[in-house]
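Box S1 | Example of a co-folding query
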Amino acid sequence: MSTDTDTDSFDFDGSALRRKRLLGKAFVGACFAATMVGIVALIALLVDVVTEAWGWLTWEFLTYPPSRFVENYNPANYGALDTGPGGIYPALIGSIYLIVLTAIFTLFLGVGAAIYLEEYAPDTRLTTFIETNIANLAGVPSIVYGLLGLAMFVRALQTGSSLLAGALTLTLLILPIVIVSAQESLRAVPDSMRRASYGTGATKWQTIRNVVLPEAIPGIMTGIILSLSRAIGETAPILMVGAATSMFAPPRLTQPTDAFSAMPMQIFDWARLPEADFQHVAAAGIVVLLTILLLMNAVAILIRNKYNRRR
Amino acid sequence: MTANGSQTVSTADSSGARSDAAMTDNAPLGSPRVDDAVIESRDLDVFYGDDQALHGINMDIPEHKVTALIGPSGCGKSTFLRSINRMNDLIDIARVDGDLYFHGKNIYDDDVDPVALRRKIGMVFQKPNPFPKSIFDNVAYGLRVQGKDDDVEEQVHTALERAAILDEVEDQLDSSGLDLSGGQQQRLCIARAIAPDPEVILMDEPASALDPVATSKIEDLVEELAEEYTVIIVTHNMQQAARISDKTAVFLTGGHLVEFDDTSKIFENPESDRVEDYITGKFG
Ligand SMILES: Nc1ncnc2c1ncn2[C@@H]1O[C@H](COP(=O)(O)OP(=O)(O)OP(=O)(O)O)[C@@H](O)[C@H]1O
Ligand SMILES: [Mg+2]
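Box S1 (continued) | Returned holo structure for magnesium ion
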C-alpha cells in the first residue's frame, strides 16, 4: 500500500488513489448485484405466473362464475360442458366495486381531513399530535384494520359481512396514507397563489376551492390511486370482515349490504384446492389481479406526468 | 433613537381632523396631512413576533393620486402596504397596533371583514403571480369570487384594455396566463386586480422583476390608473418614484417614516438630510 501522507512530491499518476477507486468500483458492483437480485426475482415470479396461466386465461374466465370442478376451467373442455365454463367474474366485480366504494370514501374523508389539518387546524400541540399519529397509523398491520372493521362495521354497525363493510375497512386501512400524501400536495401549492387569491378579495374557502385544490388535485389523485392499488391486493382485512372465498353471483353496487368475494380471496381458495390444475386457475387469477394493479399504477403515473408537464 | 422622535411640524394643512395629538408626536417631516385623504394612518405600529417593523406611522394618502413608498431594503415598505389591506392578517406572527382609516373607518375595528376590505383595496405583487388558469379566467377570478360576474366577458375586456395588454392577448384569451412573458404576466395581474373595480390599488415593486421596456409600460399604466384609482406603489427605483408619483413617503431603516410630501418637494428640496442623502444615493 502506498504511503500517501508522507510523500511530498505530486502523485501525478494517481497511484495512491487506485486502491480507493477499486473500493468504489467494488461498492458499485455490490449495489448493482443487489438491484439485480430484486429485479431477477420479480421477473422470475412474473414469468412463472404467466406461463402457469398461459392457455387458461380466456374471455370466459373473466365472465363466468367459479366452478367446483377443475375441468370447467380448461378451455379445451368448454365445448363439452353442460354447466358453462368456470371463471373469476364475481370476485372480479367484487374487487372492482370494493375499489370504487373505497375510492369514494377515501376521497371525501382523506381530502377533507387533509384540508382541515393543512388549511384550518390551529398550529397547536394537539394538531401536531394528531398529525404524528396519522403518520404512525400508516404502519399498522392490515390485519389489525381487519379486526377493527369486524368489530366496528360488521358487529357494531351491523353491516354484516358485506361489500360495505369491506370497503369501509379498506378505507380505514389506506386513509392515513391518503391523508399524509394529500397534505403534502396541499403544502406544495405555492403561497404566492394563495396570496394572489386573497388579494383579489376571495374568502378562505373560495381560495381553497378555486386555487389550492385545483393545483393539488393531481397529486392527491396520484396518492389515492396508488393507495387503492395497495388495497385491491389486500387479503387480511377483507378476510377478517368475512368476505366469501368463492361466490357464484357478483355483488350489486346498488345493494352495498350484499355479501361479496374479492380476487385475493378467490385466488387463495383456488390455490389451496388439491387438484393440480387449480394451480393454473389460480395463476390466471393472479394475472388478472396484477393487470388491474398495473393499470391503476399506470393511470397514476399518467396523471403525475401530465401535471408535471403543465407547470 | 428615532428619526421622527419629537419633530414639531407646521404645515399648511396640518389642522383639523383625527387625533391631532398623535400626529404631532409622531409626525414625519413634510406635509403628512392632505385634505382629500382616503387612507389615514395614525400611529401605526407593526410587529413580527417581538421585532417591531414599523414605528408610529402617520400619513394621509390622497385620493386618485399616485403615492410612492421608497426607502432602503427592510425598512418596512411592504409591511406598511400589507397593513393597508390587512394582508398582514395572513402572517401568523404579525401584529398591528394603532389605527388605519379607510374613508374614515378604522379597518382594524372588530367589525371590519378583511375580505370585504380587500374587495375595495386591490393588490399587485412584486413577482407576477398569475393563476395556472387561462388568461380570461385569471382576470375573471376576482369578478367571480366577488359575485360581480353578470357581464364577465365585457368586464374582462375592459380590465385587459385598462391594463394595456388587450392588444397582445386578445386572440389567446383561452391560453394559460403562465405562457405570457414576465411583463405581460404583470400587466395581467394588474388587469386581475382592477377587474372587480376596487378604489385603491396597492403595488409592491410591480416592475422590479421586469426589463426596462416592460417597466416603462407598467409606469405609463400606473399614471393612467391614477385617473380612476388611488395608487400606492412601493419602489426601489428613485427615478421611477420621481417620474410617476404625486406624493412620496420616505421610510428609513428601522421602520420609521421620515418624510412625506409632494414628490417634487422630496426630490428637489427634502427637509431631512438623511432623506437627501438617501435620494442622492449616499446611502441605502
Ligand atoms: N413575514 C415576516 N416575518 C417576520 N419578519 C418579517 C416578515 N416580513 C417582513 N419582516 C421583517 O420586517 C422588516 C420590514 O420588512 P419589509 O418586507 O416590510 O421591508 P421592505 O421595506 O419591503 O424591504 P424590501 O425593499 O427588501 O422589500 C424586515 O426587518 C423584515 O425582516
Ligand atoms: Mg418589500
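Residues 4 and 11 of chain A are 8 Å apart (CA to CA). Chain A has a mean pLDDT of 88.
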